Amino acid sequence: MTEGTPAWASAGAPAAALVHDRHLLPTRLGRLHVRTCRPTAAPLRPPLVLLHMAPQSSRMWDRVAPLLAVDRLVVMPDRIGFGDSDHVDRQLAFAEYADATMDALDALQALAEAGLDHFDVVGAHTGSCETVELAVTRPGRVRRAGVLALPVLTAAEVAAFKAEYRPPRSPQLDGSHLTDAWAWWLRWLPADWGLDLVHRRTLDVLKAEPDAWRAYHAVFDYAFAAQLARVTQPLLVLAPRDDLWELTERALPQCPPQTQVVDLPHITLEGWWRFPAELAEHVRAFLDAR
């Protein structure tokens, strides 16, 4: 099914005509919702898969995807348990999320002949872990990989994060569990960035729970540093000054030798929303390099 062009597309999006689609695809864990954006003409570049951070959804890519889709298919899954994808009523190991995403990409390949036998992948935060997992476990499929932030945690940090990221509150008669979610996002996103952005992110986390909490804990138990060292593809690390910047800086020496690092000291949180053109330019330069 084809969606109308998003409302923001008239401001800053490329002039090329794009087709926006949505798919609900089978996986081993349930149905996974995938958005796609592609040029009306035949794509000239390999497909690109964009993997969102928790507790957001594929909507985090709304402003950057059209900038990258002018000459390639861009695929944006809602991770299982997030966005419009099915929920799973148990704790998952992190590799299971990547397996479900791969199932959906294979289903999309069969359904739409999308050329996903080889693809590039870029992810942010939780999506960074999924990007690395796909690159390591599917080296014949993933051509180039990019991450925003390197969530390499010490044992002490894992314990602290697990204590902070607890299951969501049960529904309350006064609706305070809803205002809690609003307040949680407002502490990260200044009001002068726009309350519409806070509203979008609050809806994302409410829609994802309790899977958002479970996904965080799967990341905390994921051997990200060990997997990062095993990446053989060209690797891009985007390093904004967000909440994972100190972890990223500390982890850079653990990256494989073919890593390209782009320091982004002027970008904090929500880079894909607030600086889409700049980040798209860095991604495009990396993906299209010879």
Task: Kindly describe this structure.
With 290 residues, the chain is of the alpha/beta class. It has two domains: 7-154 and 212-287, Rossmann fold (3-Layer(aba) Sandwich), CATH 3.40.50; 168-209, no CATH class. The chain is 38% helix and 18% strand. It contains eleven helices and eight strands. It has an eight-stranded mixed sheet with strand order 1-2-4-3-5-6-7-8, with helices on both faces. Helix 3 links the parallel strand 5 (119-124) and strand 6 (142-148). Helix 2 (94-112) packs across helix 3. The radius of gyration is 18 Å and the shape is globular.
CATH topology of the largest domain: Rossmann fold
Q: Runs with pLDDT <50, length 5+?
A: 1-14
Could you say how many structural domains there are in total?
2
- The neighbouring-strand order within the major sheet is 1-2-4-3-5-6-7-8
- Based on Cα principal axes, name the global outline: globular
Give the second-level CATH assignment, the architecture of the largest domain: 3-Layer(aba) Sandwich
Fraction in beta strands: 15-25%
